[in-house]
Write a structure and sequence with these properties.
The complex is a heterodimer of chains A (about 350) and B (about 290).
Chain A: H1 2-7, H2 19-62, H3 65-68, E1 72-73, E2 80-81, H4 84-114, H5 120-132, H6 135-160, H7 181-206, H8 209-217, H9 222-229, H10 231-251, H11 254-259, H12 277-284, H13 294-326
Helix pairs in contact in A: 2-13, 4-7, 4-10, 5-7, 6-7, 7-10, 8-9, 10-13, 12-13
Chain B: H1 12-47, H2 53-57, H3 72-103, H4 106-120, H5 124-139, H6 144-169, H7 172-180, H8 185-196, H9 198-214, H10 217-222, H11 240-248, H12 253-288
The chains are: A mainly alpha (about 350), B mainly alpha (about 290).
Amino acid sequence: MGAAERAEPGGAGAPWVSPRRSRLLDRGFSWSTAVIAAGLIVLLAYLIFDLMGGSWRTFSRFGFGFFTGREWNPVNGREDFGALPFIFGTLLTSAIAVTVAVPVAVGLGLLLNQVRGAIANPLATFVDILAAIPSVVYGLWGLYVLKPVFDTKVEPFLVATIGKLPVIGRLFTGNANGPDVFTAGVILAIMILPIITAVTREVLAVVPRDQREAALALGATRWESIRMAVLPYARSGIIGATVLGLGRALGETIAVSMVVGNVPRIGVSLIGPGATIPSWIASSFREATSVGLHRSALLALAVVLVIMAFIMAFTSRLLVRRTERSVGRDSEPEPTVPELGTPA
Amino acid sequence: MPQATGLSGVAASRRRKNALFTLFMWSCAAIAMVPLVFITLYVVSKGASVLSVNFFTKEPAGPLNPAEGGIAPAFIGTFLMVGIATLIAVPLGVLTAVYLAEYGRGRFAGVVRVVAEVLLSTPSIVAGAFIWSVVVVLLGNFSALAGALSLVVLMWPIVARATEEILRLVPDELREGALALGVARWKVILRVVIPTAGAGILTAIMLAVARGLGETAPILLTALGNDFFNVDPLKPTDAVPLRVYDYARTPVEALHSIAWGGALVLLVSVLFLSIAARVLSSRQKKRTA
């Protein structure tokens, strides 16, 4: 890049550059962009390699027991590390988030797909802006605004109503005061709403219109046309959007860490504290000394998180792809320029 | 069927279902609006009163008179870290995008695209843990540089993917025209394609900066925080989101309101960046369409 700039003639009346030199420059430029692009691969590879290296001591000491252990004791000499409560907490908060967010996101996606222009654009902008709000702002709001309301109104209400039902009632038992996974899940739901809505919209946009129009022409109501001619096509894509949202929720750190309580706990009730992998890493990293296994164990938690996040990302990609392919639109963009100086 | 305009033959139950469905869609829209409105309202009402000269110019005060301190080191730290991160991530991201959009073809480009996507889905705390174990351990202490590098891990793929999309919107006729005049390929890219996509690339950069500004988790693991002014990139450094996070977790009321002030500044700058980015990109789309 630097060399290219220097050799660049300044516009009209520029010194003549020999074709050979020009070709060399061309090749140099295309190669340097390729090298930088390759840098991205190196970055990911190094990230994985490094996290594996840092967590190796933990995995080799505890083996598979790291995934099933319930103890977390960093005291030197009595060290014992198990990830199960954190894996549980991560999955639980994310599951709450998805359960709350998906119906809203799908309804919103359908609405944005139906109405046009004047209403849809500002609405979509509004929802997208939710995605821009920093995590720490969500956390602050959740901690000092949402949580008091949940503690005094919402959760006692849920405990008194749903809590009385058989089976699902067990989800809503316990003391509403104090931090709990339910509040964390609801905050997460707000945070992942934009991404699920956006992907749902994308999926709905590729569903062919003619079948829906045919259904409408046959006298179907709007709901019937959507149920019969839109949802069947969009189903796997919407599931893909859900999984993507789940992946995002898994990795969310700060907002969750501020409301969830950071208490490792495995239990059915949503009205009680918990800890997720990222919230636990964030809250104990500064206290962890590099002596002993503590930091290595936290890196091992990060490895578990990465694995979970990657699985979600790939699954969702496959599902969304499948929708796009099943409605017969090639999602792979065509190369825009005929090839001239391609490296490799 | 009295008020069934346009659907006069439709049975009542079907009509009711349809009405319920319409109601459902609109209530989803209403529900989605609620958090944004409430968050903005609360952050503005609780944060605005804290914004004073002290807030922007002073170091955090001691525990005896917390309300008199400011969070100036956090502003400087955020500026420093996001600045360094932008200086590194933007050239890397734009050139990656140039490769993907202009040269990239076949397997290798496909792999790069997938890798960018994988990095985009990497939780930000993992980026922090990674840079901690590489840079912080290597240098022996927490630093603004480490913080900036953890932001680079997040911003590089954002800039790359967004810029690639923009470059693809540049009409081929422009490239072909320039190539037909005998202009070298690299010059076509630097002089024709990138300037045409200029506003779009700026959009991509603004989105990435907005992301970097608000990130807390990676900064927490890499820059640690600092109560004093610091402009040395090799020393522990404070950041606005980090300060908000720390203050929110203390039991001191006065610090909570300072946290709301920090949140307000963050919210305003991030919303400004992302709204400006949207306006720019819709203009750009109109221009190239």
